[in-house]
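Note to self: keep these together.
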Amino acid sequence: METTTLGASGIEASRIGLGTWAIGGWMWGGTDEKASIETIRGAVERGITLIDTAPVYGFGRSEELVGRALADGYRHRVVLATKLGLEWSEDGTAIRRNSSPERIRRELHDSLRRLRTDCIDVYQVHWPDGATPIEETAHALEDLRREGKIRAIGVSNYSPEQMAHFADAAPLATAQPPYNLFERGIEADVLPWCREHGVAVLAYGALCRGLLSGKMTRHRRFEGDDLRRNDPKFRAPRFSQYLAAVRALDVYANERFGCSVLELALRWVLDQPGVSAALWGARRPGQLAPVKRVFGWRLDGEAMQRIDTILSQCVTDPVGPEFMAPPASEAR
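Structure:
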């Protein structure tokens, strides 16, 4: 397992992190409690020390499951990252951004309780809140860091301008943007800024919501509240384009490196300059089996070019992850 230091925080974590959005069930068609706990513990046993969650994932459910999984001697073995700044209605139908200092204090109390811990290693603002001055959010989090309730501060889905503003008010250790073979918008701005300023990038969606797992076919149907029902990548005509790219990448991965497209996709993220860790949203223990095959090799320049050629040939109508953004904040 490769490890990395998260910015200037001094915190060391594995370069593969377990993302637990799907484990929360919300927008992923439900969850299996037993399998979720086994997956979290299985990840730790395989050397994954970075566990990423958020209150909104299942409206507390993901944090509760992570807390239960880590309670029996696992907590000291992991870097626990969670988030703040999204609140929801009682029925879960309305989500809004709120990273006001008052909200942060309440969220921290709830997250510590659900996670069964007295300190969060990396506390991240989930989405920028236009109704709260950035410096107010930053100062509130720095107060928590000085009080010993959190160890490091991060942001997610922030622009370079927003991160620069934030970093003027508090030490910024991490940034968590969406990034994978198919969604590469941060290469133009977020990734260069983080490299220049020593901010660790924790790339979420490394397998693009399962597209790069190599397990999907054109017959796959998404039921209930599964967010992929509204993801343009999983709808015609784009779905067939992305599946064609996955097939071609899988053939190339096997021929050139003797690995699967899943392993190639994770290695690709890790080999991008400035990326500290890739978050992998496994839901069942068996899905973690390939993790050991992601390490011990690298993609060279020829491989990077070949991957880009495959993408340009197969995906003629690309689209980003913009559909996932919650509504922008209104003035409070």
